[in-house]
Amino acid sequence: MMLTALALLPLVGGLVLALAPRGDWGRWFAVAVTGATLALSLAVLARYDVDAGGMQLTEQRTWIEPMGVHYALGVDGLGLTLVLLTTVLTPFVVLAALRDRLPASEGASNGYLAWMLVLEGLAIGVFCATDVFLFYVLFEATLVPIYFLIGSYGTAGRGRAAIGFLVYNLVGGLVMLAAVVGLYVLSADAGEPSYLLTDLQQLDLGVWTERLLFVGFFLAFAIKAPLWPLHTWLPDAAGAATPATSVLMVSVIDKIGTFGMIRFCLGLFPGASEWASPVVMVLAVISIVYGALLAIGADDLRRLVALTSVSHFGFIVLGVFALTTTSMAGSVLYMLNHGLSTAVLFLVTGVMIAQRGSADVAAFGGVQRIAPIMSGMLLIGGLSSLSLPGMAPFVSELLVIVGTFSREPVLGSIAALGIVLAAVYVLRLYRRTMTGPLSPDVGGMRDLGTREVAALSPFVVLIVALGFYPQPLLDVIEPAVDEVSHVVGVGDPEPRTPAPVAQSETHEEGH
Q1: How many CB atoms are located within 10 Å of the residue 511 CB?
Q2: Residue 179: how many CB atoms within 10 A of its CB?
Q3: Residue 49 near residue 113, CB atoms below 8 Å
Q4: What is the DSSP track for 317-341?
Q5: Cβ distance 345 to 305 under 8 Å?
Q6: How open is the CA angle 484-489-494, to the nearest 5 degrees?
Q7: Quick one: the chain helix, strand, coil %, rounded to 5?
Q8: First-last CA distance in the chain
């Protein structure tokens, strides 16, 4: 019951916070609940047998018997990695959010933090669900807290951004619902209806049936990820959300899309995944380059960070559909590393915007002269985002490119261009905001305080630690990747070596 307790703890905490009287106590209650959730997730990690691999800590109860729906939870290396990302990020994001500037009508409400706790609980449930119907219910439920976090507590344009986010994701969810119903029909025709992953993997699907079901799931995940050209909701949503909401949305909830691609697209529809992989890889490479180019030209800090994530998600999707163990392991590791670096960028730029009263990059200049700690944190987040060696994303990005290059050298080479473009948008952002003469309009800005440093420091420590020693995490990830690769049935390509020269030919050439 550990996984149930892990998901319920923040859900119950959010409900208590929403119903309780307003007051400053609610802020520290939220920090305490998320801290306890982190501690419980570490206990789950301690119980997980890395050497055994496979799905562990499983729970299963019949939920809707006529439909074959079960309340079924479990974690493998993939799910555990993303659960840990969720539980590590949330307490420090909540700590950073304690002084967020909210609309006057909502500023005194506990609802802001309560929705964050609910979102954490739902995300944990999504990453642990081993029943497709349960996954779908939780997948759709995550839209509710994000909608209210943006629509009720965001900045200018929050209403339009929240509706755009909801409409995009609801359309994807409805398409996936049709595929979920299709799985029920097929499993019922096979003998007994079931939504358990282990049962659905045994179904004998026709070629075109499998491809249609794949498209239904993939479209929803591509919107969530987000993948070009279905990414257009993200810059608006991130631009209108508070920094804390942006972190949870981009670093955690959007990972449901790439998680679903591995767990369900590859796990349930391996033949269709291999069939679609060339097209998906091309879309991923377009996302890498297109997102980076837009980030270079962006003048709004929040939109700029969001657009960098479009590029990074392109790397993750590319690694998944390159269908090599190296690229997939890199993608799973990238999901966690991207979450850490993006959290630093969103939180630091959030402080900058709150103090300056503007998100325009041109409104800053020379800030490092009066805020050296803020400048250092932005630099660390930026260098991590451009995958500097010694930073955590470097290892994951390298694995994705190497794994992709072994199967599709042209696409791997184009994807590597994203590293160069990342250096351009990161260094350009830092130069325009932090270096040069001090702009007269930023004289009133202050450096990061104790609370902000306490919220950001754990992310910086993890970015550096995983940059130099990612192997413990790879040990957790690799068994899950090997299992998915076995299901898909596509092995790693043989190394390309020159053809050996026959000994007789060599002898003749000597004469």
Answers
A1: 4
A2: 22
A3: no
A4: HHHHHTT-HHHHHHHHHHHHHHHHH
A5: yes
A6: 105
A7: 75, 5, 20
A8: 77
Residue with tokens 């965001």: 154
The whole-angstrom separation of Cα 305 and Cα 239 is 9
Instruction: Give the pLDDT score at 511.
Output: 47
The CA-based angle 269-130-200, given to 5 degrees, is: 40
* Spatial distance between the Cα atoms of 122 and 53, rounded to a whole number of angstroms: 24
In this structure, the number of other CB atoms found within 10 A of the CB of residue 13 comes to 24
pLDDT, residue 371, reads 82
Q: How many residues does the chain have?
A: 511
- H/E element, 69: strand 69-75
**pLDDT score at 447:** 80
In tens, the pLDDT along 54-76 reads 888 889 898 888 888 899 999 98
Q: Is the dihedral of CA 477, 478, 482, 483 positive or negative?
A: negative
Beta strands in 80-182 (DSSP E): none
Backbone angles phi, psi at 60, to 5 degrees: -150, 125
Peptide bond into 226 cis (omega under 30): yes
Cβ-count burial 263-277 (b if 16+ within 10 Å, e if not): bbbbbbbbebbeebb
Q: Return the SS3 of 57.
A: strand
In this predicted model, what pLDDT tens digit does every residue of 234-274 receive, in sequence order?
Answer: 888 888 888 888 889 888 888 999 999 999 999 889 889 88
Select from 502, 484, 13 the least CA-distant residue to 266. Answer: 484
Helix (H) or strand (E) run with residue 458 in it: helix 450-468
Q: Using alpha carbons, select from 328, 193, 348 the residue that is nearest to residue 267.
A: 328
User: Residue with structure tokens 């999504």?
Assistant: 126
Torsion of CA 141, 143, 144, 150, to 10 degrees: 160
Q: Which two tokens stand for residue 284?
A: 């991923």
Q: Which helix (H) or strand (E) holds 127?
A: helix 111-128
Which residues, 6 or more positions from 486, have their beta carbon under 8 angstroms from its beta carbon?
Answer: none
Please list the residues that pair with 60 across neighbouring strands. Answer: 72
> Distance of CA 387 to CAs 17, 145, 381, 447, 487, Å?
39, 31, 10, 26, 31
Predicted local distance difference test score (pLDDT) of residue 162: 86
DSSP 129: B
Give me the residues of the chain with pLDDT under 50, please: 105-108, 504-511
Decide: 345 and 382 in contact? Cβ < 8 Å: yes
* Chain-centre distance for alpha carbon 352: 24
How many CB atoms neighbour CB 432 within 10 A? 15
For residue 95, how many other CB atoms are within 10 A of its CB?
23
Is there a cis peptide before residue 235, judged by omega within 30 degrees of 0?
no
Please work out, in degrees rounded to the nearest 5, the angle formed at the alpha carbon of residue 36 by the alpha carbons of 35 and 39.
Answer: 90
